[in-house]
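Researcher: Dear colleague, please comment on this protein.
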Amino acid sequence: MVQGFSREPGTHGPLTEVPPAGLRKIKLWAVAIAVGGFLFGFDTGVVSGALLYVRKDFDLNSFEQGSVVSVLLIGATIGATTSGKMADRLGRRPSLGLIGVVFIIGTVIVTAANGYPVLLAGRIVLGLAVGAASALVPVYLSEISPTSIRGQLLTLNQLLITIGILVAYLVNLVFSSSGSWRAMFAIGAIPAALLVISSLWLLPESPQWLLTHGRKEKAHEEIASVTDDATADQLIQRAEQRIADERAKQQATAANKGSGRRKLTAPDVRPALIVGLTLAAVQQFGGINTIIYYAPTIIQQTGLSASNSIFYSVAIGVINLAMTLVAIKLVDRVGRRPMVLVSLGLMAVSVFLLGLAFVVGMNSVLTLLFMVIYIAAFAGGLGPVFWTLIGEIFPPSVRAEGSSASTAVNWISNFIVSLAFLPLASALGQGETFWIFAAICVLAFVFVSRYVPETRGRDAQQIEAALQSRFGHPTATETADTEHAKTR
């Protein structure tokens, strides 16, 4: 609950583990929180099929079609940027409920749209909710997660994202015969309502947030509900000490006084910020959402019909989901770092071959095969592990702001790639554009191998020390030892 529970006695966690009944309750909470991830996936995926029919009803040109997709990303960038402050001010639980309300409002606007301008407005509102959810959900999950299953619960966010995308594809398939794009969008109101209901009557507030805001008794009550009073006392004592240490560190660094983004540039936080922002950009510039958003369009270009393209996009969604489930099983066994490295290596090879398939005119079966391998590689590593890492690498005092900044960069990168993909494909060729993605994956592999540490089984202080070491900076302990030596 207060990050994190541990199997080891001593300074890194309580002396007892979370009992099975407590773990079940935490996992239920995690699923309810990750409904925000489901809506993220659904509202980004549903447009791929709906667009085939919206463009006919509203007589949209190619620019207008692209803007219906990409305008959501503008809203998402704004939502991600502002959600950190909202979550720190209001709390994680009410913020998630408010996000659910915005999802409902956006869905109503899109479903009732009578033309292109109203449709765009609705997609912007949905984008606000998608962006805010994508930043808040990893933070909320991190702050209720025992260390031993933190990786699993954080990757649950990506699992629900992929389920949302798959459900969107299935909804598109169900309504494709009637061409009812309004019904495709309207289905999104159901999980949005569930998110609001969960926030009102099921979910607890983050104990980390409660302690930061001086509500010790309520934090004790929340932790004790899944452990016992003794464990709650131990966790709160350690969390209060950590909070005091962080505040003292911030006060000692006069140049970095302040709140919000200014704290993110403090020397002890900067390595986490660099890793978070770089991985956020790489996850998109590796090209994944060109496949997700334009899967039916890309598949059509291999010679298959529109109905077949929607069917095969469903198959791609199934593979995406299956590999995310594999990632959840592996993340707390294998570790974050090796999973990302293997993922990037396979992505680089498969997207290069996908580009080659278009350049030399390979048959549609091979093209689909390379596309499937690429998506499987992403879903089994970089996709879910990115969201795990941004919930872990930032110190608790700036976790919401750090996640918010990383998610905002993720959405900005998403917007740039989705807007530039079709023009680049027209100018350079579709295959050559995929080769650009391959080169980015190679560069990302080099970055991760040099700067991204393993976070599995580590608490916040250990992760910070590993980051400082990777960037060649002295740790707090080494600095203290140096200062002590000088005074001798």
In short: Confidence is low (pLDDT under 50) at residues 2-16, 479-488. The two ends are 42 Å apart (CA to CA).
